[in-house]
Amino acid sequence: MNCTPDKKLALELHDKLKADAWKVDRLGEDPEYTFDEACLRWLKDKQHKRTLRNDKCKMRFWLIHFKGRKLSSITNNECQDLIAKMKNRGSQKGFPSQSSKYSHLAFIRSLLRIAANEWGWLKSAPYIKAIPPRQVRVKWLTREQATALIDNAVDYLKPVITFALATGLRRGNILSLE
Question: With contact defined as beta carbons under 8 Å apart, do 151 and 99 qualify?
């Protein structure tokens, strides 16, 4: 029987699905779900989220590495290695921020937890370690520090500094004013 590669692949997939269905029905084994199926289910279940667009971006990153993989084969070590090698996409050069890395790890951890706890697709979710980024400490100037800053500034910057302190605008916003 001569088959095109597409037909051959479809027949193999059909045979695999049949074998999986037989294992579930006759042997009582749990079906194996893929990362792709989990992503589709996530999109269906979470379509109401305002941040779904962000989830899709994170999903694209993980799909590059886990497309077609069984959910049960995904490990913390593998996720950590992929995040360590992660690079910025598009126009930004260099490495992503700690916050970006954390959000990617938090997404896959959420997906695997829901697959285990809500959907029953995994016996247990793997532990995915995600260290939250350090919070930047916000500093406030005292009235005395503000006065000293203005007094010691060059004359042409005094009005700009006074305006910045009065409004709280950022440097870029102030300098772009006309």
Answer: no
